[in-house]
Amino acid sequence: MNQSAKLFYVQVTQLNDADTFYANCLGMPTELKMGSEKGKGILVKADHNTNIFLSEQKNQYQTDRIVLTSDDCLEDYCRLKSRGVIFKNSPVYLSEGLSIEFSDPSGNRIILLEPRNYIED
């Protein structure tokens, strides 16, 4: 797994809906943050190295594509599907590894990637 820290700034339509989705459907810890200039937002701790900052306001660094690594993409697919997450595709093999994609309630793309090395030693 990549050990460098990542922070994604993501604009959402409704903070409450986004908080519910990330906390309940995805099972990620969330924390309400209040900022003077940026207004309020929610910090999502996706994993030890990845955080997602959700805000209703635009941010110059924002993205609508979040790539998260997975240790077991198939297990995550089954677990999230049982929680009501609707996937855009079944798990697919890419040159980078096994991948699945879905969206949050605001339409931001979330890609789970289980990195795999297909080259035999």
Structure description:
This protein is α/β, with parallel strands linked by helices and 121 residues long. The chain has one domain (6-115): 2,3-Dihydroxybiphenyl 1,2-Dioxygenase, domain 1. Helix content is 17%, strand content 38%. It has two helices and eight strands; from the N terminus they run βαββββαβββ. The strands form two sheets. The chain has a four-stranded mixed beta sheet, with helices on one face. It is globular.
Number of strand elements? 8
Would you tell me which CATH topology applies? 2,3-Dihydroxybiphenyl 1,2-Dioxygenase, domain 1
Helix content: 10-25%
Average pLDDT value?
Answer: 90
| Number of helical elements | 2
Gyration radius from CA atoms, angstroms: 15 Å
Number of domains: 1
Identify the overall geometry.
Answer: globular
Segments where pLDDT lies below 50 for 5+ residues? none
Strand content: 35-45%
Give the biggest beta sheet. Answer: 4 strands, mixed
How does CATH name the architecture? Roll
- Strand order, sheet with most strands: 1-4-3-2
- What is the class in the CATH system? Alpha Beta
What class would the helix/strand composition place it in?
alpha/beta
Spatial separation of the terminal alpha carbons: 19 Å
CATH superfamily: 2,3-Dihydroxybiphenyl 1,2-Dioxygenase, domain 1
Instruction: Give the topology string: H per helix, E per strand.
Output: EHEEEEHEEE
